[in-house]
């Protein structure tokens, strides 16, 4: 079997899932579990942005806005209404979907750089608004967010919570891949390749792009719930423009539109700086140089999918 065929085989995903499950047996310190859990949440964020950027070709520089909306919705409902965090998930889905529609309706008629600038503006509006409202705690944010619990089972233990996050993120990644293989996913790919040709073929490009934007918003909102559960506290400082850029870098680095590649890119972006802590003051400089070298060597991404309008990775 050739290397490309091996990399695209179904067992590769199962192997990665098994590696994630076995990781706590290698190292299970509180710090290590926190870093690995954050990496898993970042994978979910990158998967959501991949729906928007990779599948549909919409450049979004304000994706952290949906991350914030999901985290704040869960945080407000769990602390003010004293609901279990899991019970806030339906509301998070509805609120982030509504936010996707609200932001997408006036912006998705724009293209390219214009769309990127507008989404950047919306991302900053959400962050600044969260920092100035009483219900969101202002600059101090929200504290005392409860951990995840299913029935009477408490999932707040770092290892147990890590396993719960890994399972949920795997479901999200598979769900996004299946969505990409659907009729709607094929329409997204047509729009990505040539929006004018797609419209000429009868695709309602505006509604189709809006569907991608809403789907990406929901994925980002659910990642926000996991983020709030992990830290038990959120503030506007967690949802800056830099966060949006890092998620976009993970998508581009891994391979736009390629589910497996985006997972690899997200893990690399999340864990890379931690693995370079030995170089101390030059940690982020070394990480930046490494990113540049990778993109020069692999401009199409570390693990790009099989190119084609009918299918590009699954």
Structure commentary:
The chain has 314 residues and is mainly α. The protein is built from 13 helices and four strands. A two-stranded antiparallel sheet has the order 1-4. Strand 2 (149-150) and strand 3 form a beta hairpin. Helix 3 packs antiparallel against helix 10 (205-231), helix 4 packs antiparallel against helix 5 and helix 7 packs across helix 8. The longest helix has 27 residues, at 205-231. The chain is globular, with a radius of gyration of 19 Å. The two termini are 19 Å apart. Residues 307-312 have low confidence and may be disordered.
**Count of discrete alpha- or pi-helical segments spanning 4 or more residues:** 13
User: What's the N-to-C terminus distance?
Assistant: 19 Å
Count of strand segments: 4
Sequence of secondary-structure elements: HHHHHHEEEHHHHEHHH
Which ranges are low-confidence, i.e. pLDDT below 50, for 5 or more consecutive residues? 307-312
Shape: globular
Percent range of helical residues: 55-70%
Main sheet properties: 2 strands, antiparallel
Beta-strand content estimate: under 5%
The whole-number mean of residue pLDDT values reads 88
């Amino acid at each position: 079997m050739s290397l490309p065929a091996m990399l695209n085989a179904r067992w590769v995903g199962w192997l990665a899932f098994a590696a994630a499950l076995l990781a706590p047996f290698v190292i299970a310190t509180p710090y290590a579990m926190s870093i690995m859990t954050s990496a898993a949440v970042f994978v979910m964020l990158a998967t959501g942005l991949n729906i928007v950027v990779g599948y549909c070709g919409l450049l979004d520089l304000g994706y952290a806005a949906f991350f914030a909306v999901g985290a704040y919705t869960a945080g407000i409902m769990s602390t003010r209404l004293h609901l279990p965090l899991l019970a806030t998930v339906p509301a998070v889905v509805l609120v982030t979907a509504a936010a996707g529609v609200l932001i997408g309706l006036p912006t998705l008629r724009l293209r390219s750089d214009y769309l990127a600038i507008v989404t950047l503006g919306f991302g900053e509006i959400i962050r600044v608004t969260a920092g100035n409202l009483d219900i969101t705690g202002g600059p101090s944010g929200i504290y005392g967010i409860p951990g995840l619990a299913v029935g009477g089972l408490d999932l707040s233990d770092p290892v147990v919570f890590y396993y719960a996050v890994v399972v949920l993120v795997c479901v999200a990644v598979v769900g996004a891949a299946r969505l990409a293989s659907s009729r709607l996913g094929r329409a997204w790919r047509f729009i990505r390749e040539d929006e004018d040709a797609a419209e000429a073929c009868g695709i309602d490009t505006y509604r189709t792009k809006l569907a991608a934007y809403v789907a990406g918003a929901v994925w980002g909102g659910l990642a926000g719930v996991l983020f709030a559960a992990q830290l038990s506290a959120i503030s506007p400082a967690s949802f800056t423009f830099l966060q949006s850029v890092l998620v976009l870098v993970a998508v581009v680095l891994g391979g736009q539109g390629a589910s497996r590649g985006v997972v690899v890119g997200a893990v690399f972006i999340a864990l890379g700086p931690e693995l370079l802590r030995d170089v101390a003051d030059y940690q982020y400089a070394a990480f930046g140089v490494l990113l540049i070298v990778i993109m020069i060597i692999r401009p199409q991404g570390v693990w790009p999918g099989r190119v084609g309008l009918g299918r590009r990775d699954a």
